[in-house]
Specification:
Aspartate Aminotransferase, domain 2, alpha/beta, globular, 2 domains, 12 strands, about 10% strand
């Protein structure tokens, strides 16, 4: 791998080992883009100031902080920022954006992420001034419409899940997990059982589950999976005891399978005085079909950005409301909305909780949650209706099974014999030629114009390839993806050596991933200034 002077950016791939066919390095409209520091000169600026013997007010008169003049605060060293004209700046970031992959460009097959299309109606509603321009510190009487959205969405979430209450403030899935676990912790302490310190987590659960339990002060113990990819119910029951606080289970699980023994598991957990937390990241597969409350779930977060649209990435946007059983609802966090008989809405916070909510464990966030996500999710729900939401889950499951059955003879599908999958299809690297692995298949998909699937997760499957098509992909789009993945997989099985250096047609060639992960260079240094400093 060749590294340029910036310290991290590899050179553009050279086809066939020959020199670039163009002077610029551009290939048609695939533009070669330098770093912004390499485009702009740090010693120039796009703004000129008129010369003046005393350009700063108060210079020499003792005016300014601590009696000093503002003139003493004038810059005496290079600022170290690139000076670009406005067109240069706009073009730089526009060209970078064209090198990014998004749901508006193509199919996003990431498993366990539910990267579905975000209807533009949702964006239109979220940008209405009454939602987009409000401030969290406005008087409650001035934001009745926004509180109405939060309240109505909360009602829908409890109805769709069959749960008793909901905490709307958590900002994402993992944040919601922490909320649910803190509710469980508060409930145990309230009944004098704070000694329960063990949380059981099946192997097929999401990776954030054990991290959340550990963060909350619990000891995590694994529960194995059966050969068919589901929780080993016998092993789980054998481990239950007076030291167990909860079981954190993902359903449908990360193998893409529904936990058929969920009700029996919940009954066994409750029998020993523990609680059941369900990771609801995969709720998109069962919304309108299964109510988690009917399965004995005590707490479950819902990723609004997964089940109810708005693909996520880059740290946001996200929202993770937590639905709670009647046993845990009194311990939920503040704030929450309340609707009075006259239709007036209020936020119940520390000052107003009083005797009505004495067991709350406290506050999760500074304010009330993600208003934009609430608006998008409610718009999505109301535009689909109850019957439409049911069809969403049915179509998502249908699409996943179409991919599974279309590729099971090309790629190893370890749980294909366990019955239909749910929202995602799981494959392994078993059967690829010696020296070839999942990453080679993924890099080959980039050359075909697709973002790679989720790789090496779940850990229970070696070389896992996890694909979630969602309900928003057409059969034509899925057929194109299936043809591309089948072609790449067959090349990997045949030992096509060109896959080892893929991608060849992307803006960047394959990095040394170990070096990039262990010794990343994330700060640009001006070589002139660096040399001067030496």
């Amino acid at each position: 791998m060749s590294i340029n002077a910036s310290g991290w950016r590899p050179e553009a791939p050279v086809a066939g080992g020959k020199a670039s066919p163009t002077v610029t390095g551009n290939k048609g409209l695939m533009l070669e883009e330098a770093l912004i520091f390499e485009i702009g000169d740090s010693e120039t600026t796009g703004v000129d100031f008129a010369s003046s013997p005393s350009p700063l007010r108060g210079a020499g008169r003792g005016e300014g902080p601590s009696g000093t003049s503002l003139g003493s605060l004038a810059r005496t060293a290079p600022i170290g920022l690139p000076g670009l004209s406005e067109p240069e700046t706009v073009r730089h970031y526009t060209r970078l954006s064209r090198q990014n992959y998004g749901i508006d460009l193509g199919f996003f097959p990431l498993g366990s992420c539910t990267m579905k299309h975000n209807p533009r109606l949702n964006e239109k509603m979220a940008r209405l001034p009454g939602f987009a321009d409000i401030h969290p510190l406005q008087p409650v009487d001035t934001v009745q419409g926004a509180l109405g959205v939060i309240n109505e969405l909360a009602v829908w979430l409890t109805k769709l899940t069959g749960m008793y209450g909901v905490a709307m403030s958590p900002k994402a899935g993992a944040h919601g997990e922490l909320c649910g676990i803190l509710c469980i912790k508060a409930a145990l302490e309230a009944r004098g059982e704070g000694h329960r310190k063990v949380v059981l987590v099946p192997e097929s659960a999401h990776g954030t589950n054990p991290a959340t339990a550990a963060f909350a002060g619990f000891t995590v113990e694994d529960i194995p999976a059966t050969a068919e990819g589901r929780v080993d119910t016998a092993a789980l029951k054998a481990r239950l005891g007076p030291d167990v606080a909860a079981v954190m289970i993902t359903n449908p699980n990360t193998c893409g399978l529904f936990e058929r023994d969920m009700k029996a598991i919940s009954d066994a957990v409750h029998a020993v005085g523990a609680y059941v937390y369900c990771d609801g990241a995969n709720f998109n597969a069962i919304v309108g079909r299964v109510r988690p409350g009917d399965l004995g779930i005590d707490a479950m977060h819902i990723n609004l950005h997964k089940t109810f649209s708005t693909p996520h990435g880059g740290g946001g946007p996200g929202s993770g409301p937590v639905v709670l059983s009647e046993a845990l609802a009194p311990f939920g966090p503040l704030p929450f909305t309340a609707r009075y008989e006259d239709g007036h809405l209020a936020l119940i916070e520390e000052e107003t909780a009083g005797d009505e909510h004495p067991h709350t464990f406290g506050r999760m966030t500074a304010f009330h949650g993600q208003m934009g996500m609430f608006t998008r999710a409610l718009t999505y729900i109301l535009s689909h209706g109850a019957d439409g939401l049911r069809q969403v889950s049915e179509d998502a499951v249908l699409n996943a099974n179409y991919i599974l059955r279309s590729l099971e003879k090309t790629l190893d599908a370890p749980f294909a014999g366990s019955g239909p999958c749910m929202h995602e299809a799981l494959f392994s690297d078993n059967g690829l030629a010696d020296g070839f692995s999942t990453i080679d298949v993924a890099k080959g998909l980039i050359d075909e114009g697709f973002h790679p699937m989720t790789m090496y997760f779940p850990l229970v499957v070696h070389g896992a390839m996890l694909i979630e098509p969602t309900e928003t992909e057409s059969k034509a789009a899925l057929d194109q993806f299936i043809a591309a993945l089948r072609s790449v997989a067959e090349r990997a099985k045949a030992g096509d050596i060109s896959l080892k250096s893929a991608p060849h047609f992307a803006p960047r060639s394959r990095l040394d991933e170990t070096l990039a992960a262990r010794k990343p260079v994330l700060v640009w240094k001006d070589p002139v200034l660096a040399q001067a400093a030496e």
